[in-house]
Design brief:
Largest sheet of chain B: none
Oligomer: heterodimer
Shape of chain A: globular
Radius of gyration of chain A: 25 Å
Distance between the termini of chain A: 37 Å
Order of helices and strands of chain A: HHHHHHHHHHHHHH
Order of helices and strands of chain B: HHHHHHHHHHHHH
Number of strands of chain A: 0
Structural class of chain B: mainly alpha
Helix content of chain B: over 70%
Largest interface: A-B, 108 and 98 residues
Number of domains of chain B: 1
Helix content of chain A: over 70%
Chain lengths: 290, 278
């Protein structure tokens, strides 16, 4: 390929790399960009645009009407409550796990890290099913729970447990490498100078890892509010009671209420866009994924 | 704790204890319950469920479509990563941020949106129909949904590896008369190969377990467009917990193999990287 040979560019000159200004290079560059954009437009941008077009297909008032339906409001409330419980719980877990793993040396550490990541590799359907096997009517504790009139499956606790399972690693896997990379010197200095453990954590460690924490929490929140498979298995789909937003979308869609389904979907899409914006802003502060 | 090294920092007992307790309660014990539920079956009943014609049909679709989706992402993931790393064009940063959209977008939303776009009267589906290509309610739709949701894994695995490629080596090779294809084959590909394979495996692992986005576009016909996770849900809805557990264990075993493969690939990539860096 003669076209790729250098055309008088000086070595080390980064703006004029060899082969930068040949027709071959321009062609390849143009091809790569157009293939990338076409692929993204077809599988990503078209579906995203569809959500809003379908939601507004019958006008703004029909769109807003969807949110006066009590079942829709109940679904939104349930999703918010679930996220409000799950995200803080998994954040506390993530902080504890990162402290134990990044600050100390112990045997079996790599096994522990692998086990924390395990829910990412498990199908969401399995994440929901394990709680049905434990707490369902025909499950291990089913009879006992029924005797004591406690419902976990087809009720709020089951939805929370399943959501907790699928979002389990999100904060921890962000904080563990970050804390490992930042090291222990400052914490050791604080302790040596007489600060207590909690004070060291809140005044030294937490400010250091705050962007990683925000990053993990928003991803955890996005997944918690959007989880479908795991929640679908444990929820029982009781309208107005155990329907989260994604499940409500399914019900409306299957009833051919497309405006309703896509209106609820548009809220979750806006949430996803917001998540990406916050994520990009956090990355701008210099915090980067591994 | 005798198995840990002494440190001046406090809180090991508390944080390690809480971590292992919470991990056991939320993840490990529930998964153990699944394995035990399947283990309590007679092995013949287990095999009847796991090797039934309907289950085999679902594996064929789940694995076939996931392999295809991961392969598509191997190609397009590389192209996307290359475009984002090597070229400057208007909107590059926005595109880069949008790559993570399938991570953030709930799967039910991707499911109904894809189905609408690729239905016979949809924006893209209407141009495919005259060509005789039907996407919704076929294996093609399943593959499409799996391609979308696993796309970020492939791109994000390859991107950092492409940044690592030493441009000086490329320049040197070209100065010595090597063509672009030769440079690609001998310098770029060897550097990014572990990342490409990691991305492929991550995409495949995610695709095999996917449920939400697929069930809307698949049509869910037994033996034809029924994925394994859906078959598990159907067993659960019929209160056949053992049957569901048996299929669940098969999928869990596959997840473990995937996890192991990913770890081995990443270790290989690190070793290679060290060698290249020297």
């Amino acid at each position: 390929m003669a076209a790729a040979l250098p055309h008088g560019a000086l070595p080390g000159d980064t703006t004029h790399r060899p082969g930068q200004h040949t027709w071959m290079h321009t062609l390849v560059r143009w091809m790569f960009i157009s293939v990338s954009l076409t692929f993204l437009a077809a599988v990503l941008l078209a579906p995203l645009a569809t959500v809003f077009v379908m939601a507004l297909a019958k006008g703004v008032s029909a769109y807003l009407n969807v949110f006066s339906d009590p079942d829709t409001l109940a679904a939104i409330r349930l999703t918010l409550i679930t996220a409000l419980v799950v995200v803080p719980t998994n954040t506390v877990f993530g902080l504890a796990a990162a402290w134990a793993i990044a600050k100390f040396e112990f045997r079996g550490k790599s096994i522990l890290i692998t086990l924390i990541d395990l829910p990412l590799a498990v199908s969401p359907v399995i994440a929901g099913m394990v709680f049905v096997l434990l707490f369902g009517l025909h499950g291990w504790f089913g009879a006992w729970l029924q005797e004591h009139d406690i419902s976990i499956v087809f009720a709020l606790p089951g939805i929370m447990l399943a959501t907790m399972f699928v979002t389990f690693p999100y904060v921890a896997r962000e904080l563990i490498p970050l804390m490992q990379q930042l090291g222990n010197d400052e914490e050791e200095a604080a302790i040596t100078l007489g600060a207590g453990g909690w004070m060291t954590f809140f005044r030294v460690t937490l400010p250091k890892v705050r962007w990683g924490l925000v990053y993990g929490m928003i991803l955890c929140n996005a997944r918690a509010m959007g989880e479908f498979g795991a929640v679908s298995v444990v929820s029982g789909h009781i309208r107005g009671f155990t329907n989260t937003m994604p499940l409500h979308i399914e019900i409306l869609y299957n009833e051919y209420n497309f405006v309703g389904a896509f209106a609820v979907a548009s809220l979750l899409t806006l949430l996803a866009l917001l998540t990406l914006v916050v994520k990009t802003l956090v990355e701008r502060t210099g915090y980067r994924r591994r | 704790m005798s198995f840990s090294k002494p440190s001046v920092l406090p809180g090991f007992g508390l944080t390690f204890g809480f971590t292992t307790f919470f991990l056991s309660a939320i993840v490990l014990l529930p998964l153990a319950a699944l394995v035990l539920a399947a283990a309590s079956m007679h092995w013949k009943d287990f095999l009847d469920v796991v090797l039934s014609a309907r289950a085999l049909g679902s594996y064929k679709l789940s694995f076939g479509a996931s392999l295809l989706a991961a392969s598509i992402n191997l190609v397009f993931g590389f192209i996307l990563a290359w475009t984002l790393v090597r070229y400057e064009f208007p909107g590059r940063k926005i595109i880069d941020a949008l790559i993570d959209m399938p991570f953030a977008l709930p799967t039910a939303v991707s499911g109904i949106a894809l189905t609408t776009v690729f239905a016979q009267n949809g924006w893209i589906g209407r141009y495919l129909e005259p060509l005789g290509i039907k996407v919704d309610y076929t294996w093609l739709g399943v593959t499409l949904a799996l391609t979308l949701i696993s796309m970020p894994f492939a791109v994000r695995a390859v991107q950092p590896a492409l940044l690592e490629v030493q441009r000086e080596l490329e320049d040197a090779a070209e100065t010595l008369g090597a063509g672009r294809l030769y440079v690609f084959r001998r310098i770029i590909l060897p550097t990014v190969l572990p990342a490409l394979l990691t991305g492929f495996t991550l995409a495949f692992a995610r695709a095999v377990g996917e449920y939400g986005s697929v069930i809307f576009i698949a049509g869910n016909l037994p033996m034809k467009t029924e994925i394994t996770p859906l078959l598990i849900v159907i067993h659960l809805e019929e209160f056949d917990y053992k049957g569901a557990a048996a299929l669940g264990v098969v999928m869990l075993a596959i997840s473990f193999v995937m996890l192991l493969t990913i770890n081995l690939l990443q270790a290989w990539g690190r070793r290679r990287h060290v060698r290249v860096a020297r």
